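Suppose a colleague, Dr. K., hands you the sequence of a protein chain of 68 amino acids and asks what its three-dimensional shape might be. Before reaching for any lab equipment, you can write down a predicted structure in token form. Begin with the sequence itself:
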Amino acid sequence: MEFEVSFKNPVLRAWVIIMVPSFILATLLLFLTNIPGSYISLTYSTGSWAIFGAWFLFHKRRRKLTKG
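The predicted structure, expressed as tokens, is then:
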């Protein structure tokens, strides 16, 4: 399986769109609030991966239905 590392690849593009803002938000929350860091990192990393996984399954199913 070949993986293209460019923004033409919709999976990489979605990963960047989901993960970069969640990383920035988690970093800001970590430094600007009194919430313990373990809760922030666990919540945002799990949530981001869950959203990306759901999008990936939706994308894979949609692509499979389109091709045949």
